[in-house]
Amino acid sequence: MAATTDSPERPRVGCVGLGRLGLQLAANLVAAGFAVSGYRRSMQEEFARIGGRPAASVAELAAASDAIITCLPDEDALDEVVSGLLAAARAGQIVIEVSTLAIAAKERQRDRLAAAGVAMLDCPLSGNPDFARNRQAVAFVSGAAEAMARARPVIAGFTDRIVELGAFGNGSRMKFLANMLVAVHAMAAAEAFNAGLRIGLSPETVAEALNMGAAGSRQLAVRAPVVSGAKAGQRRGNVSSPHSEFPTIAEFLRGLGAATPLFDTACEHYEAGLAAGYGGYDTGMIYTAVLRAKSTPHPATPPVDPAA
After folding, report:
1. Among residues 280, 273, 276, 270, which one has the least CA distance to residue 308?
2. Which residues of 251-281 are buried (b: 16+ CB within 10 A; e: fewer)?
3. What's the whole-number mean pLDDT along residues 220-233?
4. Do 68 and 86 meet the contact criterion of CB atoms below 8 Å apart?
5. Could you give the domains of the chain?
6. pTM value?
7. How far apart are CA 65 and CA 162, in angstroms?
């Protein structure tokens, strides 16, 4: 990878997809001293404010970058972006693909890029924008060892948590397992909050007590303030976002022949939450959307504002 003209030590980085997550990655790279170009279809004022260099097109970004990070919502977007990259691609560039998408879709784009001498890594991230802001999103990196070695300084520019997993696609496979567990853990936390409130204990108290022992989980800690309403408006994600990935995860798990009764049950409750109109609410609201509706009335259960 050619070094940037701005610094003899760092490659020039381009970021395609500057949504809530992608913008945090770009901000971390700028803070780490990288020259960062960025492209998104909508306004880029916020990206410019953090020190990024807006590009007018994907091709313009590709021409100015040695490493390109793609953080995209779906397979069609990835296909379109790769077409734009190929318009200005040059041998030796690296694409670091951090989206959660079907492995076959990523493999198709990897092969298109490889024909132009561009390496692609499958590098999905585990963690929400808050994790990314604090350099705590976990990068599950997979692909050719030589490409991983060259991309490592760039990935280390936006996160302190990097796991290298070998063959291309293993990063996505690990991300699917991570998202499966998040769905199950969030559901389990909701059940604990529901029961705790019915004996007069706040979600914060339940989370603090359980996280002292073997029953602890990160989902207890991050969802408790949302469920209690103590941090109205705080979101670590919403019900729609994880649910949109469930079909891809379920197909992967079925292909393994793996039994997933807990994940299947969690999926059903997420679907019920969506049907009840909670698609835009924090995942913690699965408690309000589903569990309270299924529970019998109890005088110790305080009302919870679903808008929290």
Report:
1. 280
2. ebbeeeeeebeebeebbebbebbbebebbeb
3. 72
4. no
5. 13-167 (3.40.50.720), 172-294 (1.10.1040.10)
6. 0.86
7. 22
Which amino acid, one-letter code, is at 22? G
Q: Are 306 and 284 in contact (CB under 8 A)?
A: no
The SS3 call for residue 162 is strand
CA-wise closest residue to 100 among 200, 201, 162, 174: 174
- How do residues 297-307 score in pLDDT, each as one tens digit? 655 544 444 44
- Per the structure block, which two tokens stand in for 251? 């197909």
- Convert the pLDDT of each residue in 109-166 to its tens digit: 999 999 999 999 999 999 888 899 999 999 999 999 999 999 999 999 999 999 999 9
Look at residues 271, 22, 3 and name the one whose alpha carbon lies nearest to residue 125. 22
Cβ(175)–Cβ(126) below 8 Å: yes
Q: What are the angstrom distances between the C-alpha of 169 and each of 95, 204, 209, 217?
A: 14, 38, 38, 27
Residues paired with 125 in a beta bridge:
139
CB 50 within 8 Å of CB 26 = yes
Is the confidence at residue 248, as pLDDT, over 80? Answer: yes
Alpha carbon distance 132, 22 (integer Å): 9
**What SS3 class is residue 11?**
strand
Bridge pairing between strands 125-126 and 138-141: antiparallel
pLDDT exceeds 50 at position 98: yes
160 φ, ψ (degrees, to nearest 5): -95, 0
In which band, very low, low, confident or very high, does the pLDDT at 245 lie, cut at 50, 70 and 90? confident
> CA 93 to CA 89: how far, in whole Å?
7
What's the rounded Cα separation, in Å, for the pair 149 and 67?
A: 13
User: Does an H or E element contain 202, and which?
Assistant: none
* Cβ pair 172, 101 in contact under 8 A: yes
Tokens representing 170?
Answer: 């293993």
Q: How many angstroms separate the Cα of 54 from the Cα of each of 21, 63, 78, 87, 241?
A: 17, 13, 19, 18, 27
